[in-house]
Amino acid sequence: MNKIDSIDLKNKNVVIRLDFNVPMDGKKITDNSKIVKTIPTLNYLLNNDCRICILSHLGRVKSEEDKSSNTLRYVAKELANLLNHPVKFVNACYGEKVRDIVNKSKAKDVLLLENTRFMDYPEKLESTNNLELAKYWASLGDVYINDAFASMHRAHASTAGIAKYLPHAVGFLVDNEITNLTPLVKDTPHPFTVFMGGAKVDDKLKLIKSLLPKCDYLLLGGGIANSFLKAKGAKIGDSLATNDEDILKELNNLSAKYKEKIVLPVDFTMDNGIIYDVGLKTIDLYQKYFNDSKIIFINGTCGKFEDERFTEGTKELLKALKNCGQDVYVGGGDTAAAIKKFGYQDSFKFVSSGGGATLEFIADGSLEALKWME
User: Fold this and answer.
1) What's the pLDDT tens digit per position in 112-134?
2) Residue 332 pLDDT > 80, yes or no?
3) Are residues 269 and 357 in the same domain?
4) Does residue 143 fall inside a structural domain?
5) Whole-angstrom Cα distance, residue 235 to residue 372?
6) Is residue 158 located within the same domain as residue 212?
7) pLDDT in tens, 150-195
8) Is residue 55 assigned to a domain?
9) By CB count within 10 A, which of 60, 70, 338, 352 is most buried?
10) Is 22 inside any structural domain?
């Protein structure tokens, strides 16, 4: 796997895949962390007099209406401010007009094409890694750089297929992620504790099954914990949990097989019989596991932390992690948002830019799109 500083990029036309899938409130970006983390790579390309053509997705596009609410136009403005350099937004990501605009650009020009997932409607071309689409995007440059770690757990046309047609390398962000997350993959010290929260266990079951043989303890929160409790026969009312009977059966089997590893909440914050957060007895319990660990990975939150009524569990969990004195590695997504919300940005060993990508890398030691970069 080539790294960005190991290949000749001087005066090259570069197609770069970044992850600008940032949270939005209308036209406003509510957290620009993902954009900030791309600046070192973009500055490196500018210093090498490259012409830069940026690809990224934003949200999911399943209809024409989704396109209007998932435009990258406002990301282009934020990027220009952070980069302190003009950024031209191109309001399409495919076609001869796009090719013409890109071909007419010059050294040090930065272009951000429209959301790559616009190519998922009406046909799913981006997310199915359509190679004709990948070939088109590859035709826009001389070199392909992938610096979109948070999107590399999926082999899409813009994250994987392009590498088939161009010399390629990973950027500084991806290299930094792999370097920092490797202790969780190789020669991991023990006891190794994982905290996993979040809403849907259905999406993370495969990863839970991969992590359980590797970690010493798996502490749970959020809808994932609710699903395990439900599987064991606990009465959780209308609390967020899976209704898939096959998954519930599998969770019950995992609870029996790994009963010494899986640790569930013992108290909750509720409203009208619905679980929205864990209680302080649970945090005290989890603190003991943190204190006895040598390395900890956290992905997800304890509950609905974005609601001020249910912040205590997540806030106290982060405090417990900070105070335990161990090396704590944090998966991105909601976890990173919670860390920023509660002021713990500089409290842990490493905060990843990825959510699902971080989990998959730790569980499998690689990522689908990363394999295309080899």
Assistant:
1) 999 999 999 999 999 999 999 99
2) no
3) yes
4) yes
5) 46
6) no
7) 999 999 999 999 999 999 999 999 999 999 999 999 999 999 999 9
8) yes
9) 352
10) yes
Tokens of residue 28, six digits: 């406003």
- Model confidence pLDDT, tens digit, residues 235-258: 999 999 999 999 999 999 999 999
Q: What does the pLDDT read at residue 356?
A: 85
User: Which pLDDT score, from 0 to 100, does residue 62 have?
Assistant: 93
Within a domain: 373:
no
Give the Cα separation of 330 and 219 in Å (integer).
Answer: 14
Looking at residue 363, its pLDDT comes to 87
CB of 153 within 8 A of CB of 160? no
Q: Which of 146, 173, 200 corresponds to the end of one domain? A: 173
How far is residue 80's CA from residue 244's CA, in Å, rounded to a whole number?
Answer: 46
What pLDDT, in 10s, does the model give residues 66-87?
998 999 999 999 999 999 999 9
Nearest-angstrom CA–CA distance, 33 and 351? 11
Same domain membership, residue 185 and residue 169: no
On whether both 90 and 162 belong to a single domain, the answer is yes
Rounded to whole angstroms, the Cα distance separating 369 from 153 reads: 6
Residues in CB range of 272: below 8 A, 6 or more apart: none
pTM of the model: 0.91
Residue 55 β-bridge partners: 17
Whether residues 42 and 92 share a domain: the answer is yes
DSSP string, 174-232: HHHHHHHHGGGTSS--SSEEEEE--S-STTTHHHHHHHTTT-SEEEE-HHHHHHHHHHT
Count of structural domains within the chain: 2
Q: Is the peptide bond before 183 cis (omega within 30 degrees of 0)?
A: no
Same domain, 88 and 205: no
CB 145 within 8 A of CB 15: yes
Question: For position 171, what pLDDT does the model report?
Answer: 98
Residues 200 and 339 in one domain: yes
Domain ranges, residue 45: 4-173
- 10 Å CB burial of residue 46 (0-12, 13-18, 19+) is middle
